[in-house]
Each structure stands twice: as C-alpha cells, then as structure tokens.
Amino acid sequence: MVVHIVEDDEAVADALAMALEDLDHRPRTYPDGETFLARARIATDDWVFVDLGLPGRSGADVIRDLLDSGQPPNIVAISGKSRTNLLRQLRELPDLKVLRKPLSIEMISDAMG
Questions:
Q1: Is the pLDDT of residue 89 over 80?
Q2: Closest by alpha carbon to 52, among 76, 19, 27?
Q3: Once rounded to an integer, what is the mean pLDDT over residues 22-33?
C-alpha cells in the first residue's frame, strides 16, 4: 500500500509525509493534480490525500477522476478553506472524508483507521 499526497504547499506535503512515515507508511508526494494523475500508479488499497485548493486542476476534480475510475483508492480530502467554502465545494462529494489543516498525526491515523 502506498499513500499518495497531492499538495501544492511543499511544507505541508513534507510534514504530512513525515507523519505518515512515522505511522509506517510509504508516502509519495505530488505538487499538483496533473502530475499525480500522470505519474501515480494507484491500487485500490492505496490512500490518496488530496488538497482541495490545488492550482490548475482542482482537488475536487482529481477526486472525481479517482471516483470515476471504477476501482477508486481510499481518498481523504484536506483543506485550509473556511467551512462555508468547503461545504460549497463538496456538495457533489457528500461521503468524502475531509481533514482541516493544520493536520495532526491523530487526525491522519483516525482517517485511515
């Protein structure tokens, strides 16, 4: 199992990767949705953490692509947006797990539990 991190903020991506390594996972980071979709080899038992505020292709679009793939991986959205903006963006993705930044190891562990 691989944990993919799609996050444009390098500091957030690094912190999340280090937390996942502490939980004995193998994280891979991608700076945007386009890079992730072009390079990642995704298995159904993988996890994908996707920032909703990505530049270019939005995090919600990346998540829709994953869900439409037929056999999607486990997906967790991450966001630093306000609750109102977040709810508006996620209307079409009602069953999605969402973590608010700043993230903690407990939040990550619970989401993957």
A1: no
A2: 76
A3: 97
- Hey, is 66 helix, strand or coil? helix
Rounding to the nearest 10 degrees, give the CA dihedral for residues 53, 54, 56, 61: -80
Two tokens, residue 14: 């690094």
pTM of the entire predicted model: 0.93
**What pLDDT is stored for residue 45 in this prediction?**
97
Q: Tell me how far apart the alpha carbons of residues 107 and 67 are, in angstroms, rounded to a whole number.
A: 23
CATH number attached to the domain at 3-112: 3.40.50.2300
pLDDT band of 77, cuts 50, 70, 90? very high
Would the pLDDT of 86 be above 80?
no
DSSP string of 40-56? Answer: ----TT-EEEEETT-SS
3-class state of residue 68 by DSSP: coil
Burial of 39 by CB count in 10 Å (0-12 exposed, 13-18 middle, 19+ buried)?
Answer: exposed
